[in-house]
């Protein structure tokens, strides 16, 4: 039986290998290792793709989120609302900005942050709300923007959603309006396994606000606005030219790759129908108005030990995973927030049952049939 990885980075590289090799030669010839034409062109191209005026390339997605939070004024003593069921980097970026993460539960069907819970958690110290576009579909950003009180900013965590849309709006192009203050801002990650992945760490901040973009660029360059002129206290988080080469080559294929992911997700829906009818599997639920990009295809299993199922799949060469096995409030790193099991029941129930199946643009229907057959055996 052939092994099927959770993500096939070798297949992704094969599609762009020649372009990447030529691009690396350009960077090496120009010695443009930090910044340079490749970075500027990628920033322009990704801003156009995302439907925003400005894209600032940075070193990684966690830095991107911290920089976005700092740019909108998040500081020590502030609170930032975010979902409990997210990768720990979301909460980590809030903590690095000096603020306190305020966790809320997710919706039980889509697993996206519950907008009502988020609004209820907003208090006098709240400076920002971070909706996370989980697994490749968009959270309810417009609804939040329309209802948040003055002075509270939205900072999108768009790390898993390059190209996803909600009601026609692309992930990362935060709407303005309502009582939410100021222009929108978003952070994304180009970690190798993302829909748009680099060959190492990389990320970006997106906004329509020229002033915010300039502040992010300064903060990511030691607070520098010109050589040896440092107007704010920043740190070092810059996108390098070699990663920009990779991202440009892959960006040209991203829409096609996202379409292939949607087709693969639809095939899984059909292949899993019998397991759904038998009550063994719950399929992913797409929120109304969303067109996901299926960064991950996350099912929920019932009546079995999920970890044992993952172990059986992995032993059989199927690269299944869990995203994520523990909500933020049950991780030791954030035990100081004072939560316990039962505080966010939907997030906790999901964490106990979720299972990510292999999905990438190059996956074949035969491979998916093999995955589902192995899943059925593991559930029996």
Secondary-structure map:
Elements: H1 9-30, H2 37-50, E1 54-58, H3 61-71, E2 79-83, H4 88-96, E3 100-104, H5 115-121, E4 126-129, H6 141-147, E5 153-157, E6 165-166, E7 169-170, E8 185-189, E9 203-207, H7 210-219, E10 224-226, E11 229-230, H8 241-251, H9 254-271, H10 273-277, E12 281-282, E13 290-291, E14 297-301, H11 306-315, H12 345-353, E15 354-357, H13 365-379
Parallel strand pairs: 2-3, 2-4, 4-5, 5-8
Antiparallel strand pairs: 1-9, 6-7, 6-13, 8-9, 10-11, 12-14, 14-15
Helix pairs in contact: 1-8, 2-8, 3-4, 3-7, 9-13, 11-13
CATH superfamily of the largest domain: Type I PLP-dependent aspartate aminotransferase-like (Major domain)
Strand order of the largest sheet: 1-9-8-5-4-2-3
Record field, number of beta strands = 15
- Low-confidence sequence ranges: 177-181
The domain count comes to 2
* Main structural class: alpha/beta
CATH architecture heading of the largest domain = 3-Layer(aba) Sandwich
Estimate percent helicity.
Answer: 25-40%
Average pLDDT reading: 95
Counted by DSSP, the helix tally is: 13
Strand percentage lies at: 5-15%
SSE string: HHEHEHEHEHEEEEEHEEHHHEEEHHEH
What is the molecular shape?
globular
Radius of gyration: 21 Å
CATH T-level fold name of the largest domain: Aspartate Aminotransferase, domain 2
**N- and C-termini, Cα separation:** 19 Å
């Amino acid at each position: 039986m052939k092994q099927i990885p959770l993500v096939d980075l070798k297949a992704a590289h094969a599609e762009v290998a020649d372009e990447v090799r030529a691009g690396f030669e350009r960077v090496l010839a120009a010695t443009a290792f930090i910044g340079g034409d490749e970075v500027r062109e990628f920033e322009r191209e990704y801003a156009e793709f995302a439907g925003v005026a400005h894209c600032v390339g940075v070193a990684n997605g966690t830095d991107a989120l911290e920089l976005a939070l700092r740019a909108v004024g998040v500081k020590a003593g502030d609170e930032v609302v975010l979902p409990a069921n997210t990768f720990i980097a979301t909460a980590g970026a809030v903590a690095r900005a000096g603020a306190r993460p305020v966790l809320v539960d997710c919706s039980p069907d889509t697993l996206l942050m519950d907008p009502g819970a988020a609004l209820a958690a907003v208090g006098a110290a709240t400076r920002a709300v971070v909706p996370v576009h989980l697994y490749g579909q968009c959270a309810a950003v417009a609804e939040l923007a329309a209802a948040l009180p003055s002075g509270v900013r939205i900072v999108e965590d768009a790390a898993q959603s390059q190209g996803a849309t909600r009601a026609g709006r692309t992930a990362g192009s935060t709407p303005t309006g309502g009582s939410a203050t100021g222009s929108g801002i978003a952070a994304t990650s180009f970690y190798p396994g993302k829909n748009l992945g680099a060959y190492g760490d990389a990320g970006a901040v997106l906004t329509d606000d020229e002033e915010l973009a300039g502040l992010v660029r300064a903060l990511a360059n030691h607070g520098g606005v010109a050589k040896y002129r440092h107007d704010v206290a920043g740190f070092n988080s810059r996108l390098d030219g070699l990663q920009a080469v990779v991202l440009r080559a892959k960006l040209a294929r991203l829409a096609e790759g996202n379409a292939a992911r949607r087709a693969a997700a639809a095939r899984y829906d059909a292949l899993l129908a019998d397991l759904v009818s038998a009550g063994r599997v719950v399929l992913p639920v797409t929120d109304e108005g969303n067109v996901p990009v299926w960064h991950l295809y996350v099912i929920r299993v019932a009546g079995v030990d999920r970890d044992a199922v993952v172990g059986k799949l992995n032993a059989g060469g199927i690269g299944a995973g869990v995203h994520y096995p523990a909500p933020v409030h049950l991780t030791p790193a954030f035990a100081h927030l004072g939560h316990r099991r039962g505080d966010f029941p939907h997030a906790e129930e999901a964490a106990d049952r979720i299972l990510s199946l292999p999905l990438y643009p190059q996956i074949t229907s035969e491979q998916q049939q093999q995955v589902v057959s192995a899943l059925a055996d593991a559930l029996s």
